[in-house]
Every structure is written in structure tokens, then in C-alpha cells.
Amino acid sequence: MDNPVVIGIISWFFPGAGHLAQKRTKRGVIIAATIWTMFIIAILSGGAHYPGFGFKDGSLLYLLNVFAKLGNGLGSAISYLIGSEAAPNIAALATFEYGGRFLETAGLLNYLAVIDALDIHFGRKK
């Protein structure tokens, strides 16, 4: 694959795909397994329902929260769909806030994976 834009987009949308497209199978599988495992743990912990920060709490905190969640690519759409239906007892879970933080961390880790895939493409990394 020779187009860095396509590599960046597929890396963001599906974690590990940018590495797989560049024949870095081992690294791509490890990245995909790690990020998707974190995402699944976050969803099962109630992270999709965790509100995080609202705009009223401060625009910077809110934007950082949105930026981190959008890093999940396809996962951000899945978590939005799951989180759009209010679950009345989800806040009672002991893991409610941890799930939200896992969701954000998975997104931030995916941004690093995108940068790694682009570095491999440009030859800055083996």
C-alpha cells in the first residue's frame, strides 16, 4: 500500500489494519488485539454510558474527552450507539467510571498506532 492517507484512515478506523496492509502481521494483530480488548472491557464495564465531562465543566476537558473517544474509529461509532440508549442501572456498577477511562485510553492508544503505521510507511521505523 503506497498511499499514506489511506493507511492513516484504515489504521484509525480499524486498529491494526494499517499494519496488516503493510505486511506487518504480527504487529498488526498485537495492536488490534490490545485495543479491541480494551474497548470490549470498557463497554462491558459500562464505559459507553459514562458521560465523562460536559461542556459546562470546561471546554478544554470536554474536547479532550471527545478527542480521546473518537480515537477508537469504528469503536467510537459502536460506543455512541450503545451509549445513546440510557441504561437506568449502569451507574450502579462499580466499574462505571473505569469503563469510561478505558474507552478513552483505547482511543488514545489507537492514535499512537496510527502514527506508528505512518512511521513505518515513511521509512522512519522498521
How would you describe this structure to a colleague?
The protein has 126 residues and is mainly alpha-helical. The chain has one domain (4-122). It has 6 helices and no strands. It has helices at 4-13, 17-21, 25-44, 59-70, 74-84, 96-122. Helix 1 runs antiparallel to helix 6 (96-122). The radius of gyration is 16 Å and the shape is elongated.
What distinguishing features does this structure have?
mainly alpha; 6 helices; 126 residues
Q: Low-confidence segments, ≥5 residues, pLDDT <50?
A: none
What's the structural domain tally? Answer: 1
How much strand content do the residues show? under 5%
Please state the average pLDDT score: 87
Distance between the termini: 16 Å
Largest sheet: none
Succession of helices and strands:
HHHHHH
Radius of gyration: 16 Å
Structural class: mainly alpha
Q: Which of globular, elongated, flat, extended, rod-shaped describes the shape?
A: elongated
